[in-house]
């Protein structure tokens, strides 16, 4: 609608509705949303609104979103400190909810996960970690892998696509597959979780690239929800042994994903953190995509990606 108004600054609501194939009521609601985003201002045009110049309006909108993301990051860091405090208190007092235990500290987390691995009989499912961990945290999980191999427990894992660029992690995952495990990758992951026999779930909490605690849960409705999430992610993920495929207009999964993150208002730095890649990688993707689509701006790149099917309208929500 914003593009249509920029192209037809004097259009009436009825003309915009006809051009967009929408009802006039939908157009009026859209104008209110554009007003909230400060992309249109009251004017003397037939619609009652005047579009702000795209170069000004979109830049201002992105600046506001970046400011909001910065505030959100501060809130997240504050939440991590609060989670650490709560986990510590829960660890001292014990869990008050049946089949839910709060584990404080990396040692308690890995002790519990190791115990689950020893008892796992049918299937071991993992998603993540969802962000980069330090060497100590990665090494702490090695004994669990050894237990699963020794017991020949069927294991499936979904890891970040960025591990393909890490020789050490790549070699570790290849060994896991040699011992019967199955690994797939996704550009970003919503959570780090471990699911044993679909009956016991562990959700580690990470702070400063280290494990600071976890929630351990045996509640059936919760573990079923995690199993459903794993199944959905597994369907979307790419086998680790498979070359990175290109789909949707010859775009790789990584290129599709970064386009979605930009469409949702994330900055290059925020997208890099979400995908656990360097800022340089995201900027290199930006240059490649801009050249491929022949775009003159990030806004035009998003519009062209939508038009070509590289991303979908729901990806922007």
TrEMBL record:
Signal peptide, first to last residue: none
Family annotation (InterPro entries): Sig_transdc_resp-reg_C-effctor (IPR016032), TrmB-like (IPR051797), Tscrpt_reg_LuxR_C (IPR000792), WH-like_DNA-bd_sf (IPR036388)
A molecular function GO annotation: DNA binding
SMART domains for the chain: HTH_LUXR
UniProt cross-references to PROSITE patterns, sorted A to Z: HTH_LUXR_2
Record-annotated HTH luxR-type domain positions: 244-309
GO biological process: regulation of DNA-templated transcription
Domain of life the protein comes from: Bacteria
SUPFAM superfamilies associated with the record: C-terminal effector domain of the bipartite response regulators
Pfam families given in the database record: GerE
Protein name as catalogued: Helix-turn-helix transcriptional regulator
């Amino acid at each position: 609608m914003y593009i249509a108004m920029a192209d037809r600054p004097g259009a009436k609501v009825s003309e915009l509705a006809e051009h967009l194939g929408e009802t006039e009521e939908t157009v009026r609601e859209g104008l209110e949303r554009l007003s909230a985003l400060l992309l249109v201002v009251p004017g003397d045009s037939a619609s009652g609104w005047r579009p702000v110049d795209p170069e000004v309006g979109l830049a201002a909108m992105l600046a506001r979103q970046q400011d909001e993301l910065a505030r959100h990051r501060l809130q997240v860091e504050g939440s991590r400190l609060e989670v650490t405090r709560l986990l510590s208190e829960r660890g001292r007092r014990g869990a008050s909810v049946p089949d839910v235990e709060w584990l404080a500290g990396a040692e308690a987390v890995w002790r519990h996960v190791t115990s689950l691995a020893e008892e796992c009989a049918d299937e071991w499912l993992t998603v993540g970690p969802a962000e980069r961990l330090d060497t100590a945290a990665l090494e702490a999980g090695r004994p669990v892998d050894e237990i699963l191999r020794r017991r020949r427990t069927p294991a499936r894992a979904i890891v970040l696509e960025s591990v393909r660029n890490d020789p050490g992690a790549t070699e570790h995952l290849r060994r896991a597959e040699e011992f019967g495990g199955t690994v797939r990758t996704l550009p970003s992951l919503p959570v780090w979780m471990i699911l044993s026999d679909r009956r016991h779930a562990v959700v580690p909490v990470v702070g400063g690239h280290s494990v600071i605690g976890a929630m351990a849960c045996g509640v059936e409705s919760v573990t079923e929800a995690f199993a459903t999430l794993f199944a959905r992610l597994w369907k979307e993920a790419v086998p680790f042994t498979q070359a990175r495929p290109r789909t949707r207009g010859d775009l790789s999964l990584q290129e599709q994903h970064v386009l979605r993150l930009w469409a949702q208002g994330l900055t290059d730095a925020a997208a890099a953190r979400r995908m656990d890649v360097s800022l340089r990688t995201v900027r290199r993707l930006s240059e490649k995509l801009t050249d491929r689509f022949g775009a003159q701006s990030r806004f035009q790149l998003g519009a062209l990606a939508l038009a070509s099917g590289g991303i979908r309208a729901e990806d922007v929500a």
